Amino acid sequence: MVDNNRPNTDLNFQGKTVLVTGASQGIGREIVKQLVKCKATVIAVARNKELLASLKQEVPAVQTIPIDLTNWDTASCMLGNVGDIDMLVNNAGLAVLGPLTEVKEEDYDRVFAINIKAMINITRLVVKNLLKRKVPGSIVNVSSQASLVGLVNHSVYCASKGAVDGFTRACALEYGPKNIRVNAVNPTVIMTDMGKLGWSDPAVSGPMLQKIPLRRFGQVHEVVDAVMFLLSDRASMITGHCLPVDGGYVSS
């Protein structure tokens, strides 16, 4: 298996400013670290001030902005004044799981507020800036295999990630003529700290693993690598694509 701590030395984002949401932990945090290793200027956005502070301590070059992205006006004001953005990673997300019959309105509101409403708003801001400057751009949305298949007790989450994929394709179509590429990655269970907590019990993980041809869950670096590739000029002819990073789950 590839070393999770190795830099993507074949990629160079020097001169590019990248905004990463949900950047304080898990996949988002590792994306930030790899982008900095690849010489990007990175703006890391998340709600948790303490985790952002620890990220800043670990990666002093990164600019951190603590903000609740579900507040449309506040996010628009704060992120509309950070300067020029060349690339965007929409990684912020939330899952509230349970049977459909037990879903509450506030569950729906919380999940859709961060998984799709905030994504639309931040993407809107970045695209407006790119169009104003008449420069190309690259956007990667972190979706999920839950957008492609049904998962038990994931009805609201599946619906929100389905919206992410639809939004990705529509943006790619609308702004492809302006050389703004928009793609998504769709991971299976990834072994972040939260993933390890939720899927360590063999009774829980066993049935899911049996549906993954590679018979394992994903590692954080495997999602980060896909994001880095789609952001880069190596993917210059790829837009409107939703890339499963799932060990073959959706093919079964």
From TrEMBL:
Domain Ketoreductase: 16-188
Protein name from the UniProt record: Ketoreductase domain-containing protein
Family: Belongs to the short-chain dehydrogenases/reductases (SDR) family.
Domain of life: Eukaryota
GO terms, molecular function: carbonyl reductase (NADPH) activity; L-xylulose reductase (NADPH) activity
Entries under Pfam families matching the protein: adh_short_C2
PANTHER family with a match to the protein in the record: D-ERYTHRULOSE REDUCTASE (PTHR44252), D-ERYTHRULOSE REDUCTASE-RELATED (PTHR44252:SF3)
Key words of the record: NADP, Oxidoreductase
Subunit structure: Homotetramer.
Swiss-Prot/TrEMBL GO biological process terms: glucose metabolic process; xylulose metabolic process
